[in-house]
Amino acid sequence: MLQLKKLQHFTKCTFKICKFNTKVFMKTRIITYSLAIYLCLGLNSCKEINSNLKDVFPMTIFVDSDKAGTDSIRLSKIAIKIEYIPLQTTDSILLDYIYHFKITNDFIFIENGLDLLRFSTNGKFINKVYSAGRGPGETLPVCSAIDEEYNRVFVFDRDKTIKIYKTNGDYLSVIKELINPVESLPPWKIEYFENNLFVALPQRPGVKYIYSLFNLKTDSIIPIFKNKNQYTNDQKSKRPSIISWDYCYQVFDTALMFKERFCDTVFILNRKLEVRPRFILDIAHKLEWETWRDKGMFNIGAGPPEGFWVHSLAESKDFLFLILSSYKRPKIFVIYDKGSRKVELSTIPDFNSYGSQVYLKNDLDHLVDFPVFNKSEGYIFYYDECLYSVIEAKYFKDAYSRATEKNKNSSEYLRSMESVLSSITEFSNPIIMKITLKQNPIKGLFERSNKHN
Question: How many structural domains does the chain have?
Answer without folding.
Answer: 1
